[in-house]
Design goal:
- The protein has about 150 residues and is mainly beta.
- The protein has one domain (about 15-135): Roll (Hypothetical upf0131 protein ytfp).
- The chain has helices at about 30, 80-85, 125-130; strands at about 15, 40-50, 55-75, 100-105, 115-120, 135.
- It has a four-stranded antiparallel beta sheet. A two-stranded antiparallel ribbon has the order 4-5.
- A hairpin with a 5-residue loop joins strand 4 (about 100-105) and strand 5 (about 115-120).
- The protein starts with 12 loop residues before the first strand and ends in a 14-residue tail after the last strand.
- About 30% of the residues are buried.
- Mean pLDDT is about 90; it is low at about 1-10.
- This is Gamma-glutamylcyclotransferase.
- InterPro entries: AIG2-like_dom (IPR009288), GGCT-like (IPR013024), GGCT-like_sf (IPR036568).
């Protein structure tokens, strides 16, 4: 697959966010102000967990609907800024990265494939090590007070 840190030509860069990078969350303005289209609600397949010791979520491989937003950036946008936040470095061993950046299908609320986008996923063993709490509704928010 020819997806890299940045894109050449006219290909827009799409990133699916499900945590602190979502609109209204703490990292959205600082890290996502270069988006060129409004955020679009959708979901990816996976399992989402709250990491209470850190105050943010993690996504693992799975079949649940994990809700978030697809963000679109201009062609040529570099993912390095987002990679830094997610403690991901291309070429570094998966054990050293906190998250892995991967390509995934994004579905709209009517269950149709909307697009494909980058997303940051965490290894289930790391989630367990970090004390992840499974969120069966597929949604994370910093406003969730019931999470201990």
């Amino acid at each position: 697959m020819a997806n890299t840190n940045s894109s050449s030509g006219n290909t827009k860069i799409k990133v699916f966010v499900y945590g602190t990078l979502m609109p209204e969350e703490c990292n959205h303005q600082a890290y996502c102000h270069h988006q060129i289209e409004p955020p679009v609600l959708g979901y990816v397949r996976g399992r989402i967990y709250h990491l209470p010791n850190f105050g943010y979520p993690a996504l693992a491989i799975g079949e649940d609907r994990v809700w978030g937003y697809c963000l679109t950036f201009a062609a040529g946008f570099s993912l390095e800024h987002l990679d830094s936040l997610e403690d991901y470095q291309p070429g570094r061993s998966p054990q050293e990265n906190v998250y892995d950046r991967c390509w995934a299908k994004v579905f709209d609320p009517q269950d149709q494939v909307m697009t494909e986008a980058w997303l940051y996923r965490m290894d289930p063993e790391k989630i367990e090590q970090y004390g992840g709490i499974y969120l069966p509704n597929g949604r994370w928010s910093s406003q969730q007070k019931s999470i201990a």
